[in-house]
Amino acid sequence: MAEAVSSNDNQYLTFTLERELFALDIASVREVLELVNITRVPRTPEAIRGVINLRGRAVPVVDLKQKFGMGSTASTVNTCIIIVEVDIEGEPTVLGALADSVQEVYEMESSQIEPPPRMGTPIRADYIRGMGKSGEQFIIILDINKVFSSMELAGLAQALGEAGAEAGEA
Amino acid sequence: MMSQDDVHRLAYLEEAKELLADLEASLLELERSPDDADLLHKIFRAMHTIKGSGAMFGFDDIAAFTHDVETIFDKVRNGLLGVSRELLDLSFHACDHIRALLEPDNAGDAGLAAAGLTLLEGFRRYAGEDAAPTDVAMPAPQEESPGVARIYRLRIRPQGDILVTGNNPLHLLEDVCSLGECRMFVHVEAVSPLDDLDPEACLVWWDCVLRSSASRQELADVFVFVEDECDLTIDLLDDGCAMDGEGVHKLLGQILVERGDITPADLENALSAQKRLGDILSDKGLVQPSQVASALAEQSAVRDLGQKQADRQEKASSIRVAADKLDFLVDLVGELVIVQAQIRQAVDESGDPHLRGLAEHLERLSESLRDSTLSIRMLPIGATFAKFRRLVRDLSTELGKDIELVTSGEETELDKTVIERLSDPLVHLLRNSIDHGIESPAERQAVGKPAAGRISLAAAHVGGEVCITVGDDGGGLDPAAIRAKAEQRGLLSPGADLTLKELYHLIFQPGFSTAKAVTSVSGRGVGMDVVKRAIDALRGSVEIDSERGQGTSITVRLPLTLAIIDGLQVQAGGEYYVVPLGLVEECVELARGEDGQRRRIVNLRGEVAPVLSLREAFGLGGQPPSIEPIVVARVDGERIGIAVDRVVGEHQTVIKTLGRLYRDVDAFSGATIRGDGSMALIIDVAALVRREALFEAGRT
Description:
The structure holds 2 protein chains of 2 kinds. Mean pLDDT of chain A is 80; it is low at 1-7 and 153-170. Chain A contains 3 helices and 10 strands, in the order αβββββαβββββα. Chain A has helices spanning 2-9, 64-67, 144-169; strands spanning 11-17, 20-25, 29-34, 48-54, 57-63, 80-88, 91-99, 101-107, 128-134, 137-142. Chain A is of the alpha+beta class. In chain A, the strands form 2 sheets. A 5-stranded mixed sheet of chain A has the order 8-1-2-10-9. Chain A has a 5-stranded mixed sheet with strand order 3-6-7-5-4. Chain A starts with a helix and ends with a helix. Chain B is α+β, with helices and mostly antiparallel strands. Chain B folds into 5 domains: 4-130, Up-down Bundle (Four Helix Bundle (Hemerythrin (Met), subunit A)); 150-316, ACT domain (Alpha-Beta Plaits); 323-377, Orthogonal Bundle (Helix Hairpins); 379-559, Histidine kinase-like ATPase, C-terminal domain (Heat Shock Protein 90); 564-699, SH3 type barrels. In chain B, 47% of the residues lie in helices and 21% in strands. Chain B has 20 helices and 21 strands. Chain B has a 5-stranded mixed sheet with strand order 6-8-9-11-10. Chain B is flat and about 115 Å long.
């Protein structure tokens, strides 16, 4: 559903993780915040950094770099939290995503967007909705719903794994 | 956007459900005191309203069905039919049927319609067995013989807001006129000049003289929908006593009409002449015509003053508000409490005494605002209890047991959400008591107990919690049977040493049931674990007390509200956490042992409690202080120490859910916002202790 709306808009929010340029469909982005204090929830996967207070609501924040296996997001002046609304199993859910820096709102015609290449992408191909271009640099357009619905399952599995390991160690 | 009609239909549905609940409660009471005329009237009124408003809002099948049932109850009310168990059974089924008809999904369901006809057939059979020929059986109250025309004076004073509630007094007047010959006198003194006129206020009232063969009750029934919005006085005039002069004159005129000596037109003339007689007073300059009217009004007002004041107080005592508006209000108050905490923190840092005074004032205000807002959401639990009366009645009949339900503490108030979510677990507990708890009458007599069993359902406030106890005087739990079952199911290793309480708690394990036979009621092993889970979800606890042969009582403890709690903030490993204050018994300090190791047990004045370290439980790392503060909490009746780095203090804690992503994290019941805007997690102590116990078990 979001797809139909978004392809008309052709607007994307670009941000960086390490050197790579990523983009999110502007329709799923609610706002961009400066980095605030994130409260860690113990015994949850590293990729979920914790919760923040978004005007009185507890909003989970996901470290996209951890999620994509690119190491942990460090706290710098440029670090931002992108608040997105995603659809997890049909339920609209508000989440935060950590980005090293947020760039701009960038317009791309759908004709300019190519399907994800089979190999050679820095992240799993099924998280990618398409590849755009800004000058010479590629922009990886994320399929945000896929990224986050896999989050939940992976998170659970990982949490269980940790618990099992610890019980074994002791 | 909902159309006006939809809004009305929704309102009707809600009202009808409430009326049905009332109806059931009255029927149950009627079972105990079948001769109570007031109750019969109440039942009749409820049915009448369901019927009348049903027809108004297009629920024709409901109107038709209820009409026929109402007819039967009219006969009962008039003493033509007796109250019997059969009638009550039919009536309960009728309630169920109406409830089914109210479901929008069931509209036009042929099966349902057939069921309705069968029910009505049953009613008719009942009426036929017992009743005089139906047509003669017109409403015949003792004081008024049917068929004879009587003269009534009605004083109809709609209240100002009658129009706002969607009633049109003119329709009422038309209904009155349709009962017989009628004359209306309209009083318009109170109507303000056009400029100040509030078009939504009803400022007129009427005196009405009616000649009709209708009974007083039938007259009153016209106004049954507006009982609360309209002051109605009905005086029977034809005995000619206790009336003022004007009344006597009118009466004379109407008697003449009645005898056929004059025509109604003559009467009208005579009446207007008499009006002029009244005018003579004012012609003499003694009074103004309006003064006569107002004097009359005053007279009646004085007479009814006491009554009206009582009425008005009752009316002012409740107001219907949509639940989501309340939820929004509670949210806002939650935000306010958070901001207030932030202000307090900022003010404490600034050290300005003037600001501090203001902040303290604000804190007191927001605290009482919080309390009164939350109290709006509080409902007495009695309505839920009333529902159970029916359940116990039906189930015990089905199982061939004789069981009495004794309730107490109906006025105990609980958060609306808690009450809603409490209903199912209580049903499970009651079913268990009825099916497993209470023995059959024969068994009971064999052990010297009265044949009728007794289930008690009690609610009470205990500290910051509500205690609900379901008790029965049945056979009690059998520890040996539980042990055998648990061993068979692999829940317990053979010969394990358990206290009686621990053993009883095994019945809350999934798939546990000691009933030998599966009945339609229970025995499938679902139930008690569902109860436990539902109560846990409400942040409550369950306790079992049982004595073999004497009965079982299960106590459910619940917090008063789910939205805001008092919490104790603690710090561990640089993060802040909140322990619900209701669980906390005390805070002590624990130094390391002489070998420099952390101790795992704390001695509380001779009593020993295990200590759980938050740092370890949450894998926070870092060095704990050498003397650790211990928060002593009581969980499931046992004390446990929680070692933290620092106890910060007591705070009002607004509970925010952690959301979907964290739904598998069970050690936290939510998060709250700290004074500085960051978040602190609220520890679900019971779940944490359970998890740690599980790890302990894994270690050994």
